[in-house]
Amino acid sequence: MKNKYLILVALIFPTLLCTGSETIPGPEETATKVANAIQAGNAQEVAKNFNAMVDLTLPGYDDTYSKIQAGQILKDFFSQNPVKSFKITRQGSSPDGSQYTIGSLEAGKKIFRVYFIIKSVNGLNLVQQLQVQEN
Fold first, then answer.
1. Going by DSSP bridges, is the β-strand pair 124-134/50-58 parallel, antiparallel, or unpaired?
2. Hey, which CATH number is domain 25-134, 3.10.450.50, 3.40.50.300, 3.30.750.24, 3.40.1190.20?
3. Nearest-5° angle of CA 117, CA 78, CA 104?
4. How many angstroms separate the CA atoms of 72 and 47, rounded?
5. pLDDT (0 to 100) of residue 3
6. Burial class (CB in 10 A: 0-12, 13-18, 19+), 56
7. 102 exposed, middle or buried (CB, 10 Å; 0-12, 13-18, 19+)?
8. How far apart are CA 124 and CA 49, in angstroms?
9. pLDDT value at residue 83
């Protein structure tokens, strides 16, 4: 009888461990998602990864904005500068665990330098800072 319970527990326990826990993407995965969204010119997807407040620098903008405001500003930027390509040129991490990404964005008739930082906030990896500056 004990063996039946042990077998049952051995079969069910691993299933319980896997089902109720959703994996939170690490900073590298979040950086990849953000880079792919920039490549697609999809401000909404980029904004999904913003912290509640974001340090945003774009042509004509340089301040701290709410997630919603920053998403709208980025959407306007992409509509005025349709993305042709985005290429990551450098990535790394800081001692505090944040992940940075630098890339080159060809949009409209211009080339921009893109820089963003992802930090862990309450267990989530979110964009804290996004800079898009003309080269």
1. parallel
2. 3.10.450.50
3. 50
4. 9
5. 57
6. buried
7. middle
8. 9
9. 98
Give residue 38's pLDDT: 98
Q: What is the dihedral of CA 68, 71, 75, 77, to 10 degrees?
A: 120
pLDDT average per 10 residues of sequence, the chain (135 residues): 53 50 75 98 98 98 98 98 98 92 97 97 96 96
Q: How far apart are CA 110 and CA 129, in angstroms?
A: 22
Ramachandran sector of residue 81 (left: φ over 0; alpha: ψ -120 to 50; beta: rest) = beta
Q: How high is the pLDDT of residue 71? A: 98
- Residue 85: strand, helix, or coil: strand
Helices (H), 19-66: 27-39, 43-47
Token pair of 65 as six digits: 């904005």
Number of residues written out for the chain = 135
Please tell me whether residue 10 adopts helix, strand or coil conformation: helix
Asked whether the whole model's pTM tops 0.85, one would answer no
